[in-house]
Amino acid sequence: MRVLVVEDEEMLAEAIAEGLRQQSMAVDVCFDGADAQERVAVNRYDVVVLDRDLPAVHGDEVCRGIVNSGGETRVIMLTAARDVMDRVHGLGIGADDYLTKPFALAELVARVQALGRRARPALPPVLRRDGVELNASRHQVLRDDRFISLSRKEFAVLEVLMRAEGSVVSAEELLEQAWDEHIDPFTNAVRVTMMTLRRKLGQPAVIHTVPGVGYQMGGTASR
């Protein structure tokens, strides 16, 4: 899942980002509405965590722009205001969810996960393919009923491949979906992560390289 956090309180923004990264999400961070508009114009995000009271461009305007773009990006707005009408207004301009500060980070993470599932074609919470079982909510992977310990990036790459349901996923798509905007597009991060992921999943191999195209989980998917 790719997430943009837009929050002018920098310590809070970084705390939110780290909490989301703990769940293997790729997270970008910015601190004002103008920067947010630029980010959403060039990147595809599953979810935008959007503070309402932003400098440069108000959060309401950022939200309207996202909604009017017609994409599948979901928006959860954050605000210090506790007035019910503020929440009603935020939802009225197209926000998918609304959370009042202060909030529990665990609740925000759970809401972002729920919105992320709505931003993509519906798939079961537990994905199964070729003897591999991935439970996104528990952040757990099994291979033939054996627990597999994965790093955050390995988990994120495996989830992208399993959600592709047998389609080939290019290295560029993996970089876009499993890494944040700071990743060097010429890095070998995908190749290195794929190598360690394959080693941990063991034999027989379930992730195959399609020369010149990308990577694919072979076999027949099951749910």
Key words describing this protein structure:
single chain; 223 residues; alpha/beta; five-stranded parallel beta sheet; 12 strands
Give me the secondary-structure topology.
Blueprint: E1 2-6, H1 10-21, E2 26-30, H2 33-42, E3 47-51, H3 59-68, E4 74-79, H4 84-92, E5 97-100, H5 105-119, E6 126-129, E7 132-135, E8 140-143, E9 146-148, H6 152-163, H7 171-178, H8 189-201, E10 207-210, E11 214-217, E12 221-222
Parallel strand pairs: 1-2, 1-3, 3-4, 4-5
Antiparallel strand pairs: 6-7, 6-12, 7-8, 8-9, 10-11
Strand order of the largest sheet: 2-1-3-4-5
Structural class: alpha/beta
Largest sheet: 5 strands, parallel
Which spans of ≥5 residues are poorly predicted at pLDDT below 50? Answer: none
Structural Rg: 18 Å
Task: Give the rounded overall mean pLDDT.
Answer: 86
- As an assembly, this protein is single chain
Can you walk through the features of this model?
This protein is of the alpha/beta class and 223 residues long. It has helices spanning 10-21, 33-42, 59-68, 84-92, 105-119, 152-163, 171-178, 189-201, and strands at residues 2-6, 26-30, 47-51, 74-79, 97-100, 126-129, 132-135, 140-143, 146-148, 207-210, 214-217, 221-222. Strands 2-1-3-4-5 form a five-stranded parallel β-sheet, sandwiched between helices. Helix 3 links the parallel strand 3 and strand 4 (74-79). Helix 1 (10-21) packs across helix 5 (105-119) and helix 6 crosses helix 8 (189-201). The longest helix is centred in the middle third of the chain and has 15 residues, at 105-119. The mean pLDDT is 86.
